[in-house]
Amino acid sequence: MSFSHYRSRPTRTVVRYFDLIILIPNLIFLLFLIIKWYHTRTKLNFNKPLLFTVSCLIFIVSFVNIIRCLYSMIFAEQTSYAIGIILKILWLLVRFTLLCTELSLLVFGIYFGRSNPNRPWIKTIKILIISSICSLIYTITQGVLEFRGDTRPSSFQLTNYNLYSYGGMKFLLISSSIFLLMYIIIFFLPILCRQHRKFLPIRRSFYIYCFIMAIINGIQIIGTILNLTETTKFAMW
């Protein structure tokens, strides 16, 4: 048995397990959304654009992630260049929908957090357009880095494991730091802007959301720093 054949067997198994770990929660969550929509379909109407838009965004994120997982699992044993390209595009599409949803929720919380403005549908569409443009710029930048070279961590570059690498550890570190700073500033806005507190969101859940997102980005920063440190040591040896 050759070394390449021996190496490819665990690689395919890991990919299936990895995709299965992502697929099962997304399927459960999608089922939850469908059941929730069935029971609250009277509330999800065009008279409440914010609730309707958020539900659609979350549904799209879950659906796109399921499609990516299924595609990766179906073609797990094939390692052609075209399949790898399509898989990267699906990963980038997942990232685009996630970031667009994240930014939209953030702006919705700030803009609609105090009161319901006039013409909410127009305001909602404007926010979606702005979030989509920002997410598209981010995703294109990440896609250029992804396709320009192997941006996976050094421990994965010797395998066939098609790992989603977020455009490389340096790009992930920079972007996570920016998002962390943004969420920290928004979280402390009631303290930093006491004179304009009447214009800030009043829902505590919004600030809890910002706090959780700050923690997630902080964990990503720690992970990328550790990975970059490990890569530096690996290069020195």
Automatic annotation (TrEMBL):
It comes from the Eukaryota. Keywords: Membrane, Transmembrane, Transmembrane helix. Coiled coil: none annotated. The keyword Lyase does not apply. One of its GO terms (molecular function) is G protein-coupled receptor activity. It is a multi-pass membrane protein. One of its GO terms (cellular component) is plasma membrane. It is found in: Membrane. Its main location: membrane. PANTHER family: TRANSMEMBRANE PROTEIN ADIPOCYTE-ASSOCIATED 1. This is Uncharacterized protein.
